[in-house]
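We examine the record.

___
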Amino acid sequence: MYRKPHPISLLIVEDHLLMLEGIRSLMLDQPEIELAASYSLGLEALAFLEENSVDVVLLDINLPDISGVELCSRIRKLDKTVKILALSAFSDRTFILQMLQNGANGYILKNTSSRELMDAIHRVLDHQIVLGPDVQQVIASGAHSLAELPRITRREKDVLQLIARGFTNPEIAVQLGISTLTAETHRKNIMQKLKVNNAAALIKAAMDYALI
């Protein structure tokens, strides 16, 4: 699990005051978390990020001034390294996929426990794509038929499973006893077969096809 030598800086974007206060209270009790700021308006949060960097953005998608999907995209364009974890009451498949396609590193529902939320924060910092159990079920429910499944080899599926766990190409190479170049080639082939161009979209597509 992710361990950082200094506190994890966190920005909360949530327009429901009770929920915001609850999350703030939870985070203030976590010695490993440094609460950078919290906002109920998305554009205010974006302005903050234009001047400050954080490790994780905890992002609601139903905001009064800007779509959470649009805000996610703008945050990702502003900062390629920040981890964006969507925390939403909506389990609609379209919202989930749009958030992932626009750069979110994870999507969990607001009925998650405090322990699960902290685990999700650590996992996105471990470069994993984090989807809550309910979210995974929603995505799987829209899986394609067998006739539409791309032809993924056994080795490519092994690589895909490790990608889903956040492994880099060198780490995949060690795990599977192959060269880094071979691991990179497998990754490229999988992305081509699934017609995606980034890791988040790859995981989404793999779940969509029920490959992981």
Remarks:
- The mean pLDDT is 87.
